[in-house]
Amino acid sequence: MSEVNSSVLPVAPSNCAASGRLPAQLSVAFSSWPDAISASRSASVSPGADLSAYKSVYIAPVETSLQSADRSFPPYGTGERPVSASDAASKASDLQQKLAAAFGKSFAVAAAPGEGVLTVSATLTRLQSNRPTAEDLRATPGLSLTSEYAGAAAVSIVLSVNGSPIAEVSDAYTGTLNDSRLRAGIWSTADVAFSRWARDLVAFVQSH
Fold first, then answer.
1. H/E element holding 16?
2. What is the dihedral of CA 181, 85, 31, 119, to 10 degrees?
3. CA-CA distance, 26 to 106, in Å (whole number)?
4. pTM score, two decimals?
5. Cβ–Cβ < 8 Å for 155, 125
6. Which residues contact 160 (CB under 8 A, 6 or more apart)?
7. What is the rounded CA–CA span in Å between residue 208 and residue 190?
8. Cα-flanking dihedrals φ and ψ of residue 201, to 5°?
9. Most distant CA pair in the chain: distance in Å?
10. Distance between CA atoms of 102 and 100, rounded to whole angstroms?
């Protein structure tokens, strides 16, 4: 499986289908996040795989594999803040819905994997809110409800056919406090990331 990291990928035309590299129009979208503290995305496609040949996709339930909370989490440190199981499950469902909606505009969305169906399996590997969650308040008694954070999200996505992986995409994004201005929701940064991942993944499949 050939690999390319978009953070160092030059923005230039390339033979995407043959090399498995990101198309030029996605190399910018994959690495250009406004107000980002850090952002990185990489992709790999098995030699000979033709993602664009599939017209039907199955969006598997999104899984979570989040980092453990650090005792030094904000506001007293810089470690990972806790995420409750219910919040993780809710955001996983949100991402699955975003993926299904985005693919549904150009593909038939199957109810189950099967012959000729491209399976999209996503795993959330990081999730940090922009505003205090119930878990934040439980972990830090007295925490102000007006507290703001730089939200973050990370994902790993495997594209497979009949159980055999043929492509992988991953992305990690950490925003800034600009994401947490007035009217920002609890999960604003994650929601923006979900929309971009869904949109860009559809384009990635169509271009490979």
1. helix 16-19
2. -140
3. 18
4. 0.79
5. yes
6. 118, 119, 121, 166
7. 26
8. -70, -40
9. 57
10. 6
For the chain, give the number of residues. 208
List the structure tokens of 86.
């219910």
Amino acid at 22: L
**pLDDT tens-digit readout, 44-80:** 999 999 999 999 999 999 999 997 765 555 554 557 8
Those residues with Cβ within 8 angstroms of residue 114's Cβ, 6 or more apart along the chain or in another chain:
58
Structure tokens at 169: 């995409």
Contact 50, 60 (CB under 8 A): no
**Each residue's pLDDT tens digit, 154-176:** 999 999 999 999 999 999 888 77
Domains in the chain, CATH or no CATH each:
22-207 (3.40.50)
